[in-house]
Design brief:
Elements (H helix, E strand, L loop, with lengths): L1 E4 H7 L2 H7 L4 E5 L2 E6 L2 H27 L8 H9 L1
C-alpha cells in the first residue's frame, strides 16, 4: 500500500494522492504514524460488499447453530461468572 505524508496533502491538496491511488489504497502518514486510508469509490464499494457478505454469512451460521440446538441459555450473571473463572 502506498503512503503519502499529511504535510504533502496540506501542500498540494488531494492531488497528492491521485497518482498513488491508481495502484490501490493510500495510507496518509501523520507524525510518522498511519492515520487515514484513502480509497477510490470502487475500492470502497468492494470493501463494503465484502463486509456485508461476511456479516450475512455470520448471521446464517448463527441461525443454523440455533436451529441445531447448539446454544446454551444463561443469564447475564451466569455469563459474568463463567468469564471470571
Amino acid at each position: 500500500m502506498s503512503t503519502v505524508p499529511a504535510r504533502e496533502i496540506k501542500r498540494r491538496g488531494i492531488s497528492a494522492v491521485d497518482d498513488e491511488l491508481r495502484s490501490g489504497p493510500v495510507w496518509i502518514i501523520q507524525h510518522d504514524e498511519p492515520r487515514y486510508v484513502v480509497l477510490n469509490p470502487e475500492q470502497y464499494e468492494e470493501l463494503r460488499a465484502g463486509y456485508e457478505e461476511a456479516l450475512i454469512a455470520r448471521v446464517r451460521t448463527a441461525q443454523a447453530e440455533v436451529a441445531a440446538g447448539q446454544f446454551e441459555r444463561m443469564t447475564a450473571q451466569d455469563l459474568i461468572d463463567e468469564l471470571a473463572e
